[in-house]
Design goal:
Chain lengths: 171, 611
Amino acid sequence: MTPEVICLAIAVATGALGTGATGSAPQAIAATERAASGVSAHFREWLADPSADGGRAIRERVDLGAPPVAIIALLDALRASPRAELLDVVQTLATYRRADIRMNAIAAWAEYGELEAVAAISAASTDLDPKVRALVPALAAKFPGEEAEQILVDLLARDEALAAALAEAAE
Amino acid sequence: MIRTLTLALVALIAGCAGRVLPADAPEHGNLAAVAADHDTEEAKRESVASGLPLVVLIERARVVAVDPIHGRERWSLPLVVTGHPVATARAVYLPVRGQRVVAIDREYGTIRFTAQLPGEALTGLAVAEPMLVATVLDPREHRPAQIVGVSTIDGEIRWRRPAAARLGIPEVVGEIAVVGIGDQIAALKIDSGREVARLDVTASYERRAEFERVVHRRGMWFVGSGTRWVDVGARGSGGDMHALARSYAPAFRTVRGMDDGHGDDERLRMWLRWSSIDASPRDAILLSRRAVVAARLDGEGNPLRPRWVHIEEDGELVALEVTGRRVVMVREDGAIVQLDDETGRELSRIGGGQPVRGALVLGAGAPAHRELRRSDDPGVHGDLRRLIAEKDARLLPAQRFAADLLWRSDDPQVRAHVLGLARGEITSDAPQAPTIRDHARALVRTPWGSGTDADTVELLGSLRKRGRFGLAEPVAFEAPIRAAVRSGSAAVTGELGLLLLDPGTTSDDLQRIVEALTLLDDVRAIDAVARFVARYHADTQIVAESGALHAAARLLLQHADDAQAGRRAREVLVAVVADPLCEPSLRTVIVRGLADLEAGAAGDLIRAARR
């Protein structure tokens, strides 16, 4: 088992990367499902538009506030195919109050190149939520480098719970 | 031989007294030491005698002395006073028409002598028995400025010295007279006019000021003009410059070369009580026409906290002095009003009669320290608001002072009056109302509360910290948020806005921040609050974690009709309620708030935003 697989396994086990259902009451999701789907559909439509208009529409909708489900869907899509003009949107979402959105935003942010990956890993390593910090090993494995490795080493020296979980998974 | 001896004798008589006082000479002597040479026991006796209160009213062609304690006229004399009088424990010296000085027995009002001064105009008088020192101007002379020493025993001129530059208003302490000349002050022996010390104050060159009055207060020497003064220090230091941070009224009388008597300008004065450890002013009493405002000053000479307010309903005040624990004020009709210096409570009122141009208030000096156990007038903030509402345009300096004092309060509800003035919500049909509004607008752009710049820097440092994993101790924001409400600057509002959007901020702190921003009522916070509401309005989890989003929405509603930030607030509110995903309870708050606004004066603005 490679370290990357171990780390991703931890992330999945802790619910670090998901579909957006994390933390939301099922009833609330049901009640808003139609509208949230509508926002997600709009995001998909705008993502499919490679012009500046599509990016602008996404930025405006995120600025106006969107349901978490739709935001996570957007971040999933941006993680799969990052759009350079939306890096600031992703970084802003990495400061969202909900940890699940921050995790998805940081995961998407790391896909924006080597430098951005280091910045994203660094941001994850200082996050107060352990689920977000649990992303660091996975991202460090996916985007290897001296800086990422050092961030991971420093984090594991401070975060005993994460170090223990990592050791347990490795066994 | 006889002729030579005669010439030598004449030269000796005219002698050292006639030697020119240079305008720019090397520093020498020790001012503090020569001033300390006087007999302290005699000074104490003098002080006790001087403590007997007397108000000398200067009418157009008469001088009346009144005992303010018993409300009795002590004496009156038909004199046309042309300058500012001075007094000792035993006599009052009045400059009168014809370039003369009349010495009057302080107790009985009998004329002791009349002295003829040289020159055509008086610059200033100072007295310490047995010598009266006067600075005069005589344009007919080669050197117009002169300083003369007049005996207070017989009124004879004992010495006179021409000066190479204009002389300021002198001060006499013990056996020396100190006078400003050019960028220096010179200390002269009062029995001979011999110069014993000289110090640079480098006034006009470095400080771009022309200091013309020397004052001695509680062991310290000041040379000042208007709202600025130099604390005269050691030789070579040039002295320490001080100034009232804002120019409400002059603290030092200036005569611009000639003392032409009591004038209209004296109805606007700042009385200062200096610190006992340095030359910084601690208390101030602003006399502004009919209004008197007493306040505590901060170390930089800014108004810090109001103590009391007094407004005369009828007639303006022409003089104010603090004697003992009494503030003695003289009205233009000769009435004498006395207040308790601690509380501003009226102690007595003596009816006036003839109009007066000015007055000399004599009595024990102000105590060095105020009674700290006694609190300020509890109704002072209401009095300040009433003062601001006065329609008399001549009260404007006091009204500006009042607004400044309200803005420096640590209580946001007190400061709200200034915000109301700035926004035009509080106004009147007074001619000066636009000026007060402009002043309030300028004021609300400055730091609020009583904190210093250093306090604000420290507060900003606290607010810029962020909670992050790995810190030895968690970051606590409760105290800085509370401190920001009391005192801060525009930068503090910005930092609170950033903290509102930071993911590490606890839900309790979110609530505190929005409450703080609501109390501060600062439109500069609207953008951050609008972003907060927009970002999380559809997130039931975030809406439910605290009341912060509801309170933030209310804050936006409160500013929806604001000229500056209202547009942003309206756009966000309208967009949020239009979103079917908006959390229902939040939507309810906004829908109701917008409906209320729509029914009111801001209706058109809301309808436009909806379109």
